Amino acid sequence: MDAKKAHMFADLFVTFIIAGIVTWYLIDAYTASSHIINLILVLPISLMVLALCIVEIIKQIKNKEEPTEKPEPVMTVIPVICLFTLYIASLAWLGFDVGTSLFIAAFLWLHGERRIIWILGYAIAFGFLVALFFSAMLPYQMPMLILPG
After folding, report:
1. CA torsion angle for 41, 47, 48, 51 (degrees, to 10)?
2. pTM exceeds cut of 0.70
């Protein structure tokens, strides 16, 4: 098997795994409670992810070109995994609002963004909007440091 086919099968395998997990989660959520309150966030997001999976599968099957980008070495992913682990571990005492903003700022810095105003503006705006969204949507209290929980 040549490198192109191996790459295509790997992409298809991951896409099918994602579609399978999303389908399983959607069925599980529906089985737990088919009430609209339970599915208000799960159903639209699941359908969007499944639609994206279908588009990606069709794109992979129709693709006749050689892959143009080199696969990212595993060692470049490890700092992101460590950063995400620190983010999850810090949420209890930093709060979801500040923790998310700091994670996004560190992630942008790690990936080469050096404009401090851009990093701070994007991280604070996105972090706090996500925190507000989830605190409004979830039926339980989120740990927050600045925003009202």
Report:
1. 170
2. no
